[in-house]
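Risk register update: the risk of archive-format incompatibility is retired. Evidence:
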Amino acid sequence: MARVTYFYRGMMEYIQVDLDLLRERHGLTVIECRSRWPQPLRLLRLIRSSDVVMSWFASWHSLFPALGCRLLGKPMIITVGGYDTAAGSGIGYGVGCGWFKRLVTLATMRLATRLIVISEFTRREAMACGADPAKLVAGPLGLDPARYADPGVERDDLAVTVGNVNTNNLTRKGLEPFVRAAAHLPQFRFVVIGAWMDGAIDLLRSIATPNVTFTGRLSHQEKVAWLWRARIAVQASRHEAFGLSLAESMLCGTIPVVTGAGALPEVVGDTGVVVASQDPEAIAEGIRRALDLGVGGSRKARERVLEHFTIDQRRALLHGLIEQAIGDATARPICCRGPSGSSSR
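Archived output:
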């Protein structure tokens, strides 16, 4: 059992999944980084008492732990993908929007021992940011089928998209074009699943046709029930480091309709429809084509997630990297180790 310290800035479902997996085998200390600025003595004590340090995202909250690990010779493993590697061109998203943010991300990635990239698209983005290719390890997100059990509901003529309703996501997650696409399929119901974060909900309501529903914030079980009812899941994004909501939908048997943005084609594979743009008419046509795939398309989408994006695969990756990191540290020459057996490099 290793002693693992995990730093995070804001709790997300995929971070919680990793924490639960780590607790299965290791002693885990979880630190919420509410401030950009660390408490140096406390930080160094935590790192010194750890065998491995981990975090999600190469950003402010992981920069100083990464620096402390370098000073004390401790391994640090960071999962990257999303805002920390995005170029942000045209959508105001990602470290590419500012030189200082890029510098923080680059410094953090260079200090880390290993970087888990959640897709091949993220691998390319991380390398474009200056990450060392030798540090990059493929590690897609993993879903637990038990959390997405079929509630036994009938499929409806229903298309869903999942994402927090905020101004940035109108374009980045394609919420606005999804809502506008509803006008081209009046006989079909369109559902936007996600919490209302700002005034974006008012804009969407102002353009929505009567066949559009906005659920607001839902529990996990309520979300899963909607996903099992839907025939089609739309992810009309401009940027996706992975596409967790899409994978969740596919696991529930919905047929995916996506843009070619980011990692979405990686997740979909040959199971759904890729549309050329966020154009509402193109999205509506993509839904029509997806409906032709029928029950076989639904089954194929679910099987793809069960084959490529499982919780067992994510578990094996995390535990394997921890064992490797400890083994590498133990194998270093004694002359290169600092206090408590750690490397002094």
